[in-house]
Amino acid sequence: MDVAGYLDLSSDVETALNNGKPLVALESTIISHGLPYP
DSSP label at 35? Predict the structure, then answer.
């Protein structure tokens, strides 16, 4: 499955990916709505 059409990467992220640098991705639903109580 090719997901490249669904992703919008900044030039900084593309550079990090191309150079094998670590990345951190945040899932936006959790940021917007908060974590549910366990």
Answer: P
Q: Which residue has the higher pLDDT, 14 or 1?
A: 14
Asked whether the beta carbons of 22 and 16 are under 8 A apart, the reply is yes
Residue 17 belongs to a domain: yes
* Structure-token pair, residue 12: 């900084």
Residue 16 structural domain:
4-33
Neighbours of 30 (CB within 10 A): 10
Residue 38: inside a domain:
no
Amino acid at 18: N
pTM (2 d.p.): 0.53
